[in-house]
Structure formats: structure tokens, C-alpha cells
């Protein structure tokens, strides 16, 4: 696209690829952190309200990061006590991901939490009335790009970041959050260099195109949906690919920008 030098720099759509050279594809990456995390979380299978087990504070941190664990007492979020607030947050998480709503940490729930996912919260503003069976969501305030913004400036920046890469939203290492994005009118998209990236479907690797499509739609103003076949579903399975827009994805953009 051509560059419009008169555009307000504050409304540049700047896509920042934070990736190591060659995306660490095919031969790169370490699976140690994911293996150890899964091992720890497996020991939490069957945990329920009233329990106190090592690792529960990690579940609280995960659910807090993604908009489920809401507490006024930060001390509680750092303990291994399975409290009432955690039970309520697990129920909300299970409902969103269409799991058995028990409030307990069963294998199905722990497996879902262990999946690679978008680093943004699931706590978006749902579309009013879910018209036509749509479950798309928007960023709070329903921010969009201005109508006069039609010629966008893209910046591709290769960096070698640590987990904390200076935007206030640190990555969590291999196997957790794959990428995150800032909505309109910022538009930055960051990919975690510690993940193993590739193009297409490969075992234990992440399809860059699928994740990029998801994050770019965040940059346009869409939030997460609870329609599992949609691009805006928050999680991705290793070795999977999702590059075809679902009706829910299309309806969300039309609701923001019209036909």
C-alpha cells in the first residue's frame, strides 16, 4: 500500500514482529518449560474449593491474567488456597470454553489451560443481543480506526526480546501466550520469540499465519469469541491451522465498520 505522509503518526498501524531470525522454525525451540508446567498442573487434577495444594497460585495468576479471577485482596491471589473466588472464576472459564461447569480443576479444564493461546484477556465487551447467533466481542469502548484512515503504514521490526519487552505486557515463555496486540488506534502486534514458529501444520509448532490473522483482527477492534471454529477463538492447538474466516469473524467486523 502507498504511504500517506500526512497521516497522523499516532494512528499508524504499526505491526511489530518480535521474532528471532528465521522464527526459530523447524529446528529451534525448547519444550522444557511446557513439560514442567504440564507436570505441575497435572498434580492439580481434582482440586476443589477448600484444598490447599502447591501450584494453585499459578492457576489464580493464569485466570487473573485472562480476566476470570477477580479479587479485591491481592494477597489471596498469591496463596495456594482454593477459595470461593477461584471456584467462581473456574466456573466462568469453564462456561466460556464450553467445559463441564463444576468449579473444580478437572483434567479437561487443566488441558484447556495448558493450550497455547492469545495473550489478551477474554474479558471483552460482548456484542449486544448476539444477533444472528454471533458471539463476537469488541474492545471496551468499541474503538475502531477512523473512516478517513484507508492507507495504512505498516512497520515490520525484528527484535530479540526478553519476556519483558517494554510494553507493560511481558510474555510468559514457551508454551503460554503466543502473541498479543493493541487495538485501535495503536495497532501494534507482538509475537513471542520463545515460541516455535512455522508456516503450515507441523507437530509441536505454531502456524504463524493463523496467529497473525487472529492478532490483526484484534488490531481492527475485535475481541475474543466463544465460537470455537472462529478465528477469534482464544486458543490454538499445536500443529493446527486456522486461516479461513468464520461467519462470526465476518459479522464482528461488519458490526464495527459496516458492509
Structure commentary:
The radius of gyration is 19 Å and the shape is globular. A 3-stranded mixed sheet has the order 1-4-5, covered by helices on one side. The protein has a two-stranded antiparallel sheet with strand order 2-3. It has a two-stranded parallel ribbon with strand order 6-7. The two termini are 21 Å apart. A hairpin with a 7-residue loop joins strand 4 and strand 5. It has 259 residues and is of the alpha/beta class. It has 2 domains: 162 residues, Collagenase (Catalytic Domain) (3-Layer(aba) Sandwich), CATH 3.40.390; 60 residues, PGBD-like superfamily/PGBD (Muramoyl-pentapeptide Carboxypeptidase, domain 1). Helix content is 26%, strand content 7%.
Summarize the structure.
This is Metalloendoproteinase 5-MMP-like. One of its GO terms (cellular component) is extracellular matrix. With 259 residues, the chain is an alpha/beta fold.
Strand content: 5-15%
Q: How would you sum up the major sheet?
A: 3 strands, mixed
List segments where confidence is low: pLDDT < 50 over at least 5 consecutive residues. 1-36, 128-133
CATH architecture label of the largest domain: 3-Layer(aba) Sandwich
Structural class: alpha/beta
Our count of domains comes out at: 2
Helical content band: 25-40%
Give the distance, in angstroms, between the N- and C-terminal Cα atoms. Answer: 21 Å
Q: Would you list the SSEs in sequence order as H and E?
A: HHHHHEEEEEEEHH
Any idea of the CATH topology of the largest domain? Collagenase (Catalytic Domain)
Principal-axes geometry comes out as: globular
GO molecular function, one term: metalloendopeptidase activity
Domain Peptidase metallopeptidase: 46-259
Cofactor: Ca(2+); Zn(2+)
Binding site for Ca(2+) 3: 172-173, 192, 195
